[in-house]
Specification:
Blueprint (H helix, E strand, L loop, with lengths): L1 H17 L6 H12 L7 H28 L4 H30 L5 H21 L13 H11 L9 H11 L4 H26 L9 H29 L2 H19 L3
Helix pairs in contact: 1-2, 1-3, 1-9, 2-5, 3-4, 3-8, 3-9, 4-6, 4-8, 5-7, 5-10, 6-7, 7-8, 8-9
Family: Belongs to the UppP family.
Catalytic activity: di-trans,octa-cis-undecaprenyl diphosphate + H2O = di-trans,octa-cis-undecaprenyl phosphate + phosphate + H(+)
EC number: 3.6.1.27
Length: 267
């Protein structure tokens, strides 16, 4: 009981720490599960703790989202912001529905691929952090529709585990002239419909094999993921504004390299 509770807390902490950073929470969770020998039937544990992170983000942005919805009837800027986020969400809906089974049954079961993608993504993040064009968009809620849609296309790359949903959207936004903080904030807002839909679809697809027998471990993981994600979301925007994304690039390379060496050594 103590061992499983500790693992549940560790995985919940990992989910909360990494879900909204450009480091790939899915990659971290899958690698941790592989090395710890942890697996839940129907991925029930992983889905539920991800829901904890989504609810954390919802709590942080509840006031902003509520204000946008209430103002949308009479405020053109609010309507444009909502349409912009929904346009960015659209490509993930199409690709996710078409490739869901392949992603979950093939890509998610390949730890070596995850380790390599962590390393490559870290290199890309370091390079883009240095050479990104001068920003011309400083407000996450007023991006042009075409750029919002293009960021949504970039998000689809994150369906390969290890790429990172936030990493793909942030890199895409930076390349299109979005300021660093605004890029992260748009990524956060886009994650609300994207992650919500992904979790709901996962629960539906796996409804016949979901296993809630380990309710204590699930509750521990959910609670730790929720609290940690709230703290991370509140901290990360100010950190990125001051320091950029280099820390996260180096972290990806470090974790990916360690995982790759362990896998090559037969662990």
């Amino acid at each position: 009981m103590q061992d499983t509770t500790l693992i549940a807390a560790l995985l919940g902490l990992l989910e909360g720490l990494t879900e909204f950073l450009p480091v790939s929470s899915t990659g971290h969770l899958l690698l941790a599960g592989h090395f710890l020998g942890f697996e839940s039937k129907g991925k029930t544990f992983e889905v539920v703790i991800q829901l904890g992170a989504i609810l954390a983000l919802t709590a942080v942005y509840a006031a902003l989202v509520t204000r946008l919805v209430l103002r949308a009837r009479q405020d053109d800027a609010a309507r444009r912001a909502i349409v912009s986020i929904l346009l960015a969400f659209l490509p993930a809906v199409v690709v996710g529905l078409m490739a869901h089974d392949f992603i979950k049954n093939v890509l998610f079961e390949t730890p070596m691929l995850i380790a390599v993608m962590l390393i490559l993504g870290g290199i890309v993040l370091l390079v883009i952090d240095r050479i990104a064009p001068r920003p011309v968009h400083h407000d996450a809620l007023s991006l042009p529709f075409g750029k919002s849609l293009a960021i949504g296309v970039c998000q689809c790359l994150a369906m390969v585990p290890g790429v990172s949903r936030s990493g793909a959207t942030i890199v895409g936004a930076l390349l299109m002239g979005v300021e660093k903080r605004a890029a992260a904030e748009f990524s956060f807002l886009l994650s609300l419909p994207t992650m919500g839909a992904a979790v709901a679809y996962d629960l539906f697809k796996n409804r016949d094999v979901l296993d809630f027998s380990a309710l204590w471990e699930i509750a521990v993981g959910f609670a730790v993921a929720f609290v940690t994600a709230v703290l991370v979301v509140r901290w990360v925007l100010s950190y990125i504004s001051r320091n950029g994304y280099a820390l996260f690039g180096w972290w990806r390379i470090l974790v990916g390299s360690a995982a790759l060496l362990a896998l090559l050594a037969g662990f």
